[in-house]
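Re-run with default settings, no changes from the original entry. Doing this only to confirm the output is reproducible before filing.
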Amino acid sequence: MSRTNLSWEFTTHPCRGHPDGTDRILRPMMPATISKGNDKIDVPFLVDSGADFPSIPRDLAEALSINIDDLPKDKISGVGGISDIAWVDLDIEFGQRGRQFSYRWPFQVILNNFHNKLPLVGREPLFLHFDVSFRMKYAGIRGKFVLSEVIRTRDPGRYC
C-alpha cells in the first residue's frame, strides 16, 4: 500500500512589523470544505502545529446554520489568552490530484472576537492521520507544506 502525499505552497499574508521589513508572512493554508448537514463552505485552514484541535470562528459556524446555543461550552487557554468555545462535530474534506480525504472531526467554535479569525487545523486529529512537514524556500518557491498519509501496520494504542 503506498502513501498519498498532498502538498501546497505557502500563501502570503500581511503582517505589520515583520523583522525582514516586508510586512508579509508565509502561512501553510490548506484548502478544504467543511459541512454540517446540507450546508457546505469552502475555506482555507491554517495548519497549526501549536494548536490542539481544529477551530473555526463563530461567524463561520453561523454561516453553516449551527445554533451556538445548543452546543456544549468550554474554555481554552492559548497564546491569545483564555477563550470561550463551543464544541461541534463537522465533516471536513480535502485533497488534490484526484485523491480526497473525508473525516468527521470535533471542532472548537471560538466564541470570543479575537483579531485573528483564521480557521485552523491542529495536531488532533490531523497529525494522527498525516505526517506533516514544513519546507521553507523549497525548490525556488516560497516554501510548501506536505501532508503524507500515515499507514498504520499495528495498533496505535500499543505505541505508548
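The radius of gyration is 17 Å. The chain has one domain: 5-149.
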